[in-house]
Design a protein that fits this description.
Layout (H helix, E strand, L loop, with lengths): L3 E6 L5 E2 L15 E5 L1 H7 L2 H5 L31 E3 L1 H7 L3 E6 L10 H13 L4 E5 L3 H13 L2 E7 L4 H9 L3 E5 L3 H15 L2 E2 L8 H5 L1 H9 L7 E5 L4 H16 L7 E7 L4 H6 L25 H10 L4 E4 L1 H15 L5 H15 L8 E6 L7 H6 L20
Parallel strand pairs: 5-13, 6-7, 6-9, 7-8, 10-11, 10-13, 11-12
Antiparallel strand pairs: 1-2, 1-3, 4-5
């Protein structure tokens, strides 16, 4: 990993050499940021080399990832998800452009395949035979799927309230699933204790420093898919904060390389019932845990484990944060689908709900281009999706009962 120059703690700002670190800051326990030698990276990869690269996955950015040059990668194709133009949304809300990054197209149907694929690489580099994570569903499914693809065992800790479809997906991949009768935060603590005791490789967000590195690949793709331009604003649902922090890191990497000249405003959207980061961004900057309650399980985090990184991303980029109600999130699911054909789960649809709220309040200007990052497929939570629409037409098998459809 010659391109890595070390690590910096996001909390106490101490710096460390690569050999000193396994997961978190050994001094304060804070999350770590990976530092890179950008001059060396520019010797290994360029816009021109990427244009000629036919490997359309996150591994096209390998020199910008914290991994050995010869490390094998999972066989599943992760990343290079579509970035759709959404002109009907742009026209409806009177903005210059709306783009939709559909990460539900990843192998296990969520954004979390990006960090989980990198986590499996790191687990193999460490010689681990078991990988584990705490999850509200998607991160666990992603890790389970990536582990299955390379023949590695996985143990996944999820709250017992996790949607049945997500639990089933974990089991289909062969993961050992631990349903925790408690919150996501309690599942995290139990998972961390288990990995420490049993020596399992730990992927959990806000503890493993490489999760944000996997997630930053979406920023690389957005810029490359826009011919090395960037939108004025990127909006994404926020739970632990690791995705928006990862996007910020990705855009920062590209600016350091000289490939883009500015970083978009990164706007986080949280459910009103679990919005500690919104309160911090719009208040005094301190993150105060809450008892999270929202239908959007993917962002139902009351005590964000990567909050500091997320807070800096939203503040330093000028993007800010907004809270939306469960009703606004649910309404956004069919609204997005009918305008773009993209079916999003609640935590992902929060991005559209946040966009609508910010545009209607005048925060988003008419001349802005906006990218919505859709982090998971709506098939992850069919029960909530059904709440967003009425009952289908039920009739007897006779043509006369269809007359109303013709008028």
């Amino acid at each position: 990993m010659n391109q890595i120059s070390g690590y910096t703690c996001l909390e106490c700002t101490r710096t460390f050499n690569v050999a000193e670190i396994k997961y978190v800051c050994p001094e304060c326990g804070g999350n770590l940021d990976v530092r890179y030698d950008y001059e060396r990276i520019n010797q290994q990869i360029s816009k021109a080399s990427l244009a000629a690269d036919r490997n359309f996955s996150i591994w096209r950015y390998r020199p910008l990832l914290p991994m050995e040059d010869t490390s094998p990668v999972p066989p599943l194709s992760v990343g290079w998800t579509p970035l759709y133009d959404a002109p009907r949304l742009a026209t409806e809300f009177g903005v210059r452009q709306v783009l939709v990054k559909d990460d539900g197209r990843n192998p296990t149907a969520s954004f979390k395949d990006r960090p989980s694929a990198l986590a499996v690489v790191k687990a193999q580099e460490a010689g681990a035979t078991v990988a584990t994570t705490a999850s509200s569903g998607n991160a666990g499914a992603a890790l389970a799927g990536m582990c299955a693809s390379v023949g590695m065992k996985s143990v996944i800790f999820v709250p017992a309230t996790t949607p049945a479809a997500k639990v089933a997906q974990l089991q289909i991949y062969g993961a050992t699933v631990v349903l925790v009768e408690g919150s996501y935060e309690q599942a995290c603590e139990l998972c961390l204790a288990a990995s420490e005791r049993f020596g399992w490789y730990q992927r959990t967000t806000g503890y493993n420093p490489f999760t944000a590195e996997g997630k930053k690949t979406a920023a690389f793709e957005i810029a490359e898919q826009m011919n090395w331009q960037v939108p004025d604003r990127v909006i994404v649902g926020v739970g632990d904060g690791n995705i928006i922090g990862g996007l910020w890191k990705g855009f920062c990497d590209l600016r350091e390389l000289g490939w883009i000249d500015r970083i978009p405003k990164l706007t986080g959207v949280q459910a009103a019932g679990a919005a500690p980061l919104v309160a911090a961004v719009n208040g005094d900057g301190f993150i105060r845990p809450v008892d999270g309650k929202t239908v959007a399980d993917g962002i139902n985090v009351g005590d964000p484990r990567d909050g500091t990184r997320a807070l800096r991303a939203m503040r330093d980029s000028g993007g800010g944060a907004v809270a939306v109600s469960d009703e606004e999130i649910i309404a956004a699911i069919p609204r997005l689908a009918r305008a773009t054909g993209v079916f999003a789960e609640p935590g992902a649809a929060a991005a559209l709900a946040g966009f609508i709220k910010l545009r209607e309040s005048g925060v988003i200007q008419s001349d802005e281009s906006v990218a919505l990052v859709i982090t998971g497929s709506g098939l992850k939570d069919i029960n909530t999706a059904r709440r967003s629409v009425g009952e289908p037409l039920r009739i007897q098998p006779v043509i006369s009962q269809l007359e109303a459809l013709a008028t």
